[in-house]
Amino acid sequence: MSNPISDLVLGFQDLVSQVPVLVQPLIVAVAGAVPFVEGEGAAAIGIVGGLHPVVAAIAGAVGNFLCVLVVVLLGARVRTAVVTRGGRTEEPPTARRQKVMRAYERYGTPGVSLLGPLLVPTQITSAALVSTGVPVKTVLVWQAAAIVLWTTAVTLLITGVFAFAG
């Protein structure tokens, strides 16, 4: 049985190797926008596909951040619409929301943003944060930091492995 994420990554790697060099960063950026692939996975796709590691990292991070930006802005609008809707009684929080709130209370926005990618995609972390009322600017700043950090770390790791392997 095949893994959908593995199939998707292999598909992106194949596509990167088949398109002209000038288009390759765009493919990597699109890959970075995909949850569970993220900036770090996209950078790996680009590097394996033959892109310079810096170009691959920037493209993957930009694609990841642009997707997070859209999610955060839409999530903030949805939250505003729900909160300002009159006559609505507040429903008890779901188990997932309670889990997010516990993590937020324990680690704050920086911790949830920086550690979140170990468990869930940045898009989901961002939506969860903004849905709880964390300001959009705060979510975007910390998600950008997390994307840059994780994408850089994976890029350096893969580049080091390739240099070591010769």
From TrEMBL:
<feature type="transmembrane region" description="Helical">
    <location>
        <begin position="54"/>
        <end position="76"/>
    </location>
</feature>
<keyword id="KW-1133">Transmembrane helix</keyword>
<keyword id="KW-0472">Membrane</keyword>
<feature type="transmembrane region" description="Helical">
    <location>
        <begin position="141"/>
        <end position="165"/>
    </location>
</feature>
<keyword id="KW-0812">Transmembrane</keyword>
<feature type="transmembrane region" description="Helical">
    <location>
        <begin position="107"/>
        <end position="129"/>
    </location>
</feature>
<protein>
    <recommendedName>
        <fullName>Small multidrug efflux protein</fullName>
    </recommendedName>
</protein>
